[in-house]
Amino acid sequence: MGMDTRKALSELLAHQKRIDRLSAAAGILFWDEQVNLPPGSAAFRAEQNGYYAELLHRESTLPEVGQWLDTLEADRDSLSDDERVIVKEARREYDREVKLPGEFVARRSKARSESFHAWVEARKKNDFASFAPHLRKALDFSREEAEYQDAEDAYDFFVDVYDPGMSTAVIDPLFAKLSEGLRPILDTILSAEDTTPPDLFRGFPVDGQEAFLREVVAAFGFDFNVGRLDRAVHPFCGGHPLDTRMTTRYDPDNPLDSLSSAMHETGHALYEQGLPTDYPGTALSHAAGMAAHESQSRIWENQVGRGRPFWRHWEPRYRAFFKEQLAKVDSDQLYRAINRVAVTPIRVDADEVTYNLHIILRYGLERDLFAGRVAIGDLPEAWNERSRDLLGFTPASDTEGCLQDVHWCEGMFGYFPSYTLGNLLAAQLWYAAKDTLPDLEEDFGRGDYTRLLGWLRENVHSKARRENANGLAERATGRPLGTEALLRYLRERYLPLYTT
Amino acid sequence: MGMDTRKALSELLAHQKRIDRLSAAAGILFWDEQVNLPPGSAAFRAEQNGYYAELLHRESTLPEVGQWLDTLEADRDSLSDDERVIVKEARREYDREVKLPGEFVARRSKARSESFHAWVEARKKNDFASFAPHLRKALDFSREEAEYQDAEDAYDFFVDVYDPGMSTAVIDPLFAKLSEGLRPILDTILSAEDTTPPDLFRGFPVDGQEAFLREVVAAFGFDFNVGRLDRAVHPFCGGHPLDTRMTTRYDPDNPLDSLSSAMHETGHALYEQGLPTDYPGTALSHAAGMAAHESQSRIWENQVGRGRPFWRHWEPRYRAFFKEQLAKVDSDQLYRAINRVAVTPIRVDADEVTYNLHIILRYGLERDLFAGRVAIGDLPEAWNERSRDLLGFTPASDTEGCLQDVHWCEGMFGYFPSYTLGNLLAAQLWYAAKDTLPDLEEDFGRGDYTRLLGWLRENVHSKARRENANGLAERATGRPLGTEALLRYLRERYLPLYTT
C-alpha cells in the first residue's frame, strides 16, 4: 500500500469514527425525545433536529471524503478484503448523502418532527384528514430524495437503503409464496375452537412486570453496564452499541405484550452490543441491514420467547411475581395465551401467523402510493379494502387502520418488508442453530442462552455489514432467503395448539 | 440602516439562533450524562463530547460571522440600542472563541469528561494523588486558554467570562468587607446554645419528598410544560429556557437538603424560563452572568424558602406528607432546623452564614493556584490551613476538603466568586422588592409568589444580558453590589434565633 493510500485510509477511518460519535449523539437526542421531552418542547426540539441533521449531513459530505475514496478506489488491489468492504460501504453512503442538498436535509428533518407530532394527534382523534397533508409531504420528500439519487425506481431505492441488495424483484415472489403458504395454516387455526379465555390477564402491576422483564433481558445477555431499559410510548432500541437505549411500555391488562416487546427489543440490542467496535462508523461495525436486525429481534421474541423450554424455566418466576393474577391460569392456558393466534387490527399486537399479512398489506400499499395508483386521500379506503382481502375484516376506524403505524409519518417508506424478511431469516437461522448445537432448547429450560447467543454472535453479529441478509442466510443456513423455514416453524408451533 | 447592514444583521441573528439550538442539544447531552448514562459508557460519551465541542466551536467561529460583525460595527450609528447590545456580546463571544484552536477545544472537552470521572473516583476513595494529574491538566488548560486570549491576568479573564465586567479588583474589597462583617454574626451564633436536636429528620420516604417538592416547585412558577425535574447525583439546572432540565437528589435522612436544593435549582430555572426568547443565542436571550443567576437561585432558596411566611403556608402540607416523621417536631423546631447555623466541612451543606466563608476560601486558593503560590501537590494542606483560619476546623479527609467540589475538575476556575456575588445581589434585590411591593411576604403565607416572580421577571429576567450583575444592582436597587444588604438580612434572620 502506497503512502497516499495509507494516509487516505487512516483519514477515512478517523472521519468515520467522528461521524459515528456525532450520530450517536443524535441517537441519544432521539431517545430523549421519545422518553423525556416535556410536552411543550416539541417544536423546539424539531428545530434542533433540523439544524443537527444539516450539520451531520455537511460533515458526512466534506469534499475530502470523496478524495480519500477516489485515492482508495484507484489503489483497490492493495487493500485487504475488509478494507474493500469499508471503502465500498463508505462510497455508497457518501454518494447517497452528497447528492442531497443540505437545505433539503434540514427541511425534511424539521418536517418529520412536525409530522410525527401531527400523526400522534391524528391517531388519537381518529382524524386522517388532519394527517393527510403531512403524509403527502412525507411522500413528496421521498420522491424528491429519489430524484436527487437518480434512482431508477424510487421505491426500490428505499428498499435497498434499509436492506442493501434487496429489491421488489426479490420480495414479490417471496411474499406471494408466503401469502399462499400462510393461507392453509391460518384457515386451520381459524376453523379450530379458540380455547384461550381472553380475560385472564388483568391487573398485573407495572413494577412487577418491569422487574420480571429485567431479569429476562439480563438472562438473554443484555449488558446493562452499557445500556438502559426505559419506558416510552413506542418500544424501540436506539442509541449505540456502546450506549444502548431500549424502551418498552407496560399495560397492567396486557402483560404479555410488554414481555414480547421487551424480548423483541432485546434481540435488537444484543445484535447492536454484539457488533465489532474496532472500526466505528464503517461497514465493519454496522448491522447488515434492517431485515437482519429484525431477524435478531424475532428469534428472541418468538423462537425463544414463545417456546415451551423458555417457559419451563421462567414460569415459576413469573408466578412468583404474579401469584394472585395467575392463580386461575394453569400452565397450559399460559402457554396457549402466549401463542394465541387471532386476527387483530393492529400490526404490533398481531400473532406470528397473521403478522406477515399485515406487512404484505403495507408493502402493497406503499408500492401503490409510490406508483400513484393510490392517492393519499384514498388511503383509508384502500387500506380497508386490503384488510378485508388479506385479513378478513374492516378496521373499525382509521386509528385501527391506516393511522396505526409510525413509519410513514417519518417518511420510512420501504422499511416494512424488512419485518417479514426478518421473520424469514429468523426461522432459517433458528433451524441452522438447532442443527449445529445439539439439544439447544434444553439450555433454555435451564435459563441458559449462552450457546445460542454465541452462535448468533459468530454467524450474524460479528459479520457486521460484510454480508447482507441474503448473504447471511446463504452462509449461515446454506440457502438464500426463502419461505420454507418460516412456514415449517409456524406449522410446528401452532398447528398442534389448534388441532384436536 | 443600509442594505448591507440589514443583511449582516439578519444573517447574524440566524446564525446565533442556529448556535443556540445546537448548544441546546449539547445541554441535553450533558443532562443525559448526569442523569442517564450507563456506567460503562463514560469514555464513549467523553469522545462524543469532544467531537461535538469541536463542531460547535467551528460553527461559532465561521469567518462570515467576523465579517457580519465588521459590517455592523462599521455602521454602528444606524443600530438600535438592543441591536448594539447584540453586536457587542456577539463580538465578545466570537473573539473569545476564534482565538481558540479547534483541536484545543476538542482536547479540553475530552480531558474534562475524563477528569470528571477521575474526580468522582478520587472523592469516593479519598485519593487526592490519583486526581492531582487531572487537576494539573485542568489548570494547564486554563492557562493555555488565557494565553490564546492574550489575557492580562488569567484569573481575571475567567472571572469576566462568568460575570461580564467583574474582576478581582472589585471582588477583593467586597469579600474583605463581607468576611469582616460575618465574623461578629458568626461569633454570636456559635457562642449561643444550639437548640436544634440534629437527629429529628430521619426516614423521610423519597417518593413523598419528591411529591412535596414538585408542589413547591410548581407553586413558585416552574413550567413543567417545558421542563422536567429528575434525580441526579449533583443537583443542577440545565437544558434551555424552552426545555429546562432540573435535577435534585434525595436522602431519606436529610430531607431539608433535598428541599433547599430543589428550591435553589428552581430559582435558576425560573430565571431561564423568564428570559426573552425572541432573539435566541444573543445577549437579548441570555442570562446576565453567573452572579445574577445565583442571585435568583438564592432568593428562592433562602429569602423565600427559609422564611416563616413560606412555612406558614407549607408546614401543614409537609406534615400531611410526613405525619409520623414530624410527630415529635413542633413548628418552632422545624423552623430552627431549616435555619440551623453550624460550621460544616461541605460547602453545599453549609448554612447561609458560613456559606460565604467557604467561597472566600476557594477564591483565595484559586488565585494562589493561578499565581503559582500554591502547587497542586500542596493543595490539600493549603486547603486545610485556610479551613482552620476561616472556619475553625481541619477537614477529616480530602473528600471533605479539597476534593469536595466538581468545579475545578472541569476547569471551572473563577466561577466560585459568583456564588457570593449572587448572595450579595439576592439580598439587595430582596429588600428592593419588599420596598416596592407592600406586604410582599403576606403573599407567601397564602402560597402565592406571583408578585415576587413578576418583579423579578421585570427587573432581572426580562433584561437578559443588557446589564451585568452590577448594572442590575444599580438599576433595580439603586446602588452597586455591596455587603450591607446581605449582612442586614443575615442579622435579621439569624440573630433572633441565636440570642436568648
Task: Summarize the topology.
The structure is a homodimer of 500-residue chains.
Chain A: H1 3-35, H2 42-60, H3 63-74, H4 81-98, H5 102-125, H6 128-148, H7 154-162, H8 168-191, H9 206-220, E1 227-231, E2 237-240, E3 243-248, H10 255-274, H11 290-304, H12 308-321, H13 331-338, H14 352-371, H15 379-391, H16 416-436, H17 440-445, H18 450-459, H19 469-477, H20 484-498
Parallel strand pairs in A: 1-3
Antiparallel strand pairs in A: 2-3
Helix pairs in contact in A: 1-2, 1-3, 2-5, 3-4, 5-6, 6-7, 8-14, 8-20, 9-10, 9-12, 10-11, 11-16, 14-15, 14-16, 16-19, 16-20
List keywords for this structure.
homodimer; 500 residues; mainly alpha; Neurolysin, domain 3; 2 domains; 3-stranded mixed β-sheet; 20 helices; 3% strand; globular
How would you describe what is shown here?
The structure is a homodimer of 500-residue chains. Chain A is mainly α and 500 residues long. The first copy, chain A, is globular. In chain A, helix 8 crosses helix 14 and helix 9 (206-220) runs antiparallel to helix 12 (308-321). The first copy, chain A, has helices at 3-35, 42-60, 63-74, 81-98, 102-125, 128-148, 154-162, 168-191, 206-220, 255-274, 290-304, 308-321, 331-338, 352-371, 379-391, 416-436, 440-445, 450-459, 469-477, 484-498; strands spanning 227-231, 237-240, 243-248. Chain A has 2 domains: 3-150, no CATH class; 168-498, Neurolysin, domain 3 (Orthogonal Bundle). Chain A contains 20 helices and 3 strands. A 3-stranded mixed β-sheet of chain A has the order 1-3-2, with helices on both faces.
